[in-house]
Write a structure and sequence with these properties.
single chain, four-stranded parallel β-sheet, 10 strands, about 20% helix, about 30% strand, globular
Length: about 210
């Protein structure tokens, strides 16, 4: 009987936390969209700044739940990786989102100044929890976002460990952050290997798909 009573109390407390306490906390700590930046590959970056609070800290590779059009009391959040550097100190958070239909197709309509809510950070996919002498990062398409957070963070920290990024896209124009990846080579010991199944004429890089 005590076991069942304890389990009932636990689940009721968890329900109250998820449906009331955490939404109230998010409601009191909103963010404002400072910029909607267009990227390659039909993607856009939402730049969000804390509104009236200091924001939260995350480690590169983590993600958060974004609530755009509704109250945090509704279960309408969508998970996206942070693409910004974790070394910034002003609370700014960026998420880069590709148009894949439904919710993501409306990102281009988000006005500057829009109030949004972020729940996070979550996730253990981060270089900070797995120290190494070098890093090999493998990404495809918009899956580059957590990798960009890692690379930007390493650059801001002045980290000189070797990094190899293997990055697959359907074509050259779809490679999000293509130009920034080149510029990061001047701040990092970075090698970028682009892999394209449909390369342009005269392409000298890797062709096909990333496999074993």
């Amino acid at each position: 009987r005590m076991l069942w009573i304890g389990m009932a109390i636990f689940w009721i407390a968890l329900l109250l936390y998820v449906r009331i306490i955490k939404p109230l906390f998010m409601l009191r700590r909103p963010y404002r969209v400072a910029e909607v930046r267009e990227e390659r590959g039909d993607a856009r970056t939402l730049v969000m700044r804390p509104d009236g609070h200091g924001g939260f800290r995350f480690t590169p590779g983590q993600f958060g739940w974004l609530t755009l059009w509704d109250s945090p009391f509704k279960f309408t959040g969508h998970p996206f990786s942070f693409s910004s550097s974790a070394a910034v100190t002003d609370g700014r958070v960026e998420m880069t989102i590709r148009n894949l239909g439904d919710f993501t197709s409306r990102i281009e309509q988000v006005p500057v100044g829009q109030r949004v809510y972020l729940d996070g950070p979550y996730g253990a996919f981060t270089i900070d929890r797995n120290p190494a002498d070098m890093h090999v990062l493998i990404a495809g398409g918009v899956g580059i976002t957590p990798m960009m957070s890692m690379l930007r963070t390493l650059a801001d920290r002045g980290d000189k460990r070797p990094v190899t990024l293997v990055y697959g896209n359907k074509d050259w124009d779809s490679a999000i952050f293509r130009e920034e990846l080149e510029s990061l080579k001047s701040r990092l010991d970075l090698k970028v290997v682009h892999v394209l199944p449909d390369p342009p004429a005269g392409w000298k890089g890797e062709k096909g798909y990333i496999d074993a």
